[in-house]
User: What shape does this take?
Amino acid sequence: MSRKIYEVRDVSYTYPTGKTALKDISMEIYSGEIVAVVGPNGAGKTTLLKILDGLIFPQKGEVRFMGKPLTEEVLTDEKEMAWFRSRVGFLFQNPDIMLFSPTVLEDVAFGPLHLYDREKALAITESIMKKLGIYHLRDRHPYNLSGGEKKKASIAAVLALDPEVILLDEPTRDLDLKNRNYVLELIQELRDSGKTIVMATHDLRAIRLADRCYIINTSLVFSGTPRELFSREDLLENANLEIPEIIRLLRMVGIDEVPLTLDEAASLLKERMNGSFFPTVEKIPQQTQIKD
Amino acid sequence: MSKLIDKTVEEVVSFIQEAVFSERYAGKEGFLQGLDPRAKLAALLISISVVVGVKHITTLLFLYSIPLIMAALSKVPLGYFVRRVWVFVPVFTGIIAIPVIFNVITPGKALFVIWNSPYIAVTKEGLHAAGIFTLRVATAVSYAILLTITTKWNDVMKGLSDFKVPGMVVTITTLTYRYIFLLTSILVDSMHSRKSRLCRKLGMIESWKEAGKNIGAVFIKTQMIGEDVYYAMLSRGYLHTAKSLNDFRFRKRDALFLALTVILMVGVFMGDRWFI
Ligand SMILES: Nc1ncnc2c1ncn2[C@@H]1O[C@H](COP(=O)(O)OP(=O)(O)OP(=O)(O)O)[C@@H](O)[C@H]1O
Ligand SMILES: [Mg+2]
Assistant: This one.
């Protein structure tokens, strides 16, 4: 079994306004996995990520990061803080919050400058900006970028710290298809290079990438695999998620298995239907071509 | 002046954004841009102390001319610079300078009488005091604004850090700067969203009335976002010190600049005290 990164025990959090955002949440995050945190709007996902990033601290319960308790006292120690901050990166949902320097270059460099000397910080910053294809934006003011460019700049700002654990708050929201694909591929790449990823999301395609998922709605509703989640209508409803159309289609034709990819769905269909309804599955697209 | 008053919220806010956040001239190659921010900060401190300490209007006029020359040497257009300074002057002087002109505060020879009982008049001495005060403020503001025009904000903060200004002060200043940026951006955004639903152009007075209606909401929103901005800084390892990508080196010309500033300012101060 891989290393335990986070251990969350009976965590409750109430905002100063009196609103209880989280109640008795327990979960574990292991090294090298993608974990999706799912739940309706206002369920407490962002609050949970802020707790995992040591930005706010629960009134009740305990969070451990790599075995060490994650508390306000621990993080006031500069050494501990530098150790923790360089290991965990947090992508805020709203890029405008993350981008605050006069130029994109300075913004991406903000984290590295606080950890390394100037030369090293600059080298890291430039290489990550080239990797994400935003190097040409280096002298631009972050406020005048397009939504997709802002997202990439804020991702670069997080990755510049080369964190082992990456917390993502709705990483694919507000992106067009190309940028959404880009971010989803990037998430996979990051996992393949050994990073641990925790993401709050409503995106069905992002959930499919996950190894495990949690549904929260102030308290913990479900913990399991995406496949289990998609197979249970009550859970999807609880998380305000749409049942994927491909799954609905299979149900309509009497298949109860839950495919996670189109390929899986196609082979399920082929397996069951070849020779029964249609002569060959290969012909279906031609016969059902829709002209618009 | 009426031109300045006759502006919609949007225009005023855009002006503030431009005035406070533009780094247009900080990246140019000019005299002041080429100096170490620490030398500039130290020179600013010395110059402002002298501006505050001198007594004569001639000395103040001389001191006022120095930043104008420096601005010209630093490729900052004079009109732009002077306008920026004088927009901020009323903010600092209005409350103080206006009462000073009356006999109640500054007794003296009445220039014109406003009220007979109780007796209220504008006095010659009052006008003189208010004039000197305004000029003094304008001169001090000129020095300060010249520094911010010719230095990147991060570098100013880095300079403060290097001067061992407490981290908390640097953090609060940095956050205030970003907070004002957010506040003005959100205000413009929300004005735009209202405008798009209004389907017609608002006049000057209407625009301020509309802004008044939602300014409270804008403040709350900015405060919430501002909190997250701080979290986003913390998350990336912020440790209450400012860092800059620019490498500062205190070179010969910085030392020379600082030495000349000291000589000039001490000279001006002594001249003001003993020779005029
Ligand atoms: N700063 C705050 N002060 C007070 N209450 C807050 C604050 N931030 C969030 N809340 C409340 O806490 C609850 C959980 O909020 P949170 O942002 O964690 O939800 P979320 O799951 O991220 O929602 P979404 O999917 O809309 O992003 C909500 O009811 C919200 O109104
Ligand atoms: Mg959220």
Observations:
- Strands of chain A lie at 4-14, 20-30, 34-38, 60-65, 68-69, 88-91, 165-169, 196-200, 212-217, 219-224.
- Chain A touches chain B through 35 residues (CB under 8 Å).
